[in-house]
Amino acid sequence: MAKHVVAAADEIPPGGRKLVEVKGRAIVIFNLAGDYYALNNRCPHKGGSLCHGRLTGLVESGAPGEYRYSRRGEIIRCPWHGWEFDIRTGRSQCDPQTLRARNYSVSVETGAKLVEDPYVAETFPVSVQNNYLVVEI
Ligand code: FES
Fold this sequence. Notes:
Blueprint lengths: L2 E6 L8 E6 L2 E8 L2 E6 L13 E7 L7 E10 L6 E3 L16 E8 H6 L3 E2 L9 E6 L1
The structure holds FE2/S2 (inorganic) cluster (FES).
The site of FE2/S2 (inorganic) cluster (FES) has 10 residues, from loops.
């Protein structure tokens, strides 16, 4: 498994996302309140672009007429048919045990650390002043 520099950390503000390509795969990077997550951009249903989906939250109901809304902005809804996925895990909201969007490990590395380690920079030159997002794939 190789590590790939995909963006400067400050390119993606909290609540934001960025579509990148690593080894021919389209991957969308999300920033949830300062934590970064990466999902394959291809929805496992029919291939819709998760990067173009709407951010939403989790709606749960314990009884008819009652509902609770939580985790605002942590669920991505596919723009094609509305399937929803947990950005933190890639798991589907309707069938979390068997259906999920592929997720990848993302870390934030300093420019100085990148110069030390054998990372592969594919999208832009590396500078030692900033923090960068690194995807393992
Ligand atoms: S392609 Fe994503 S829900 Fe159908």
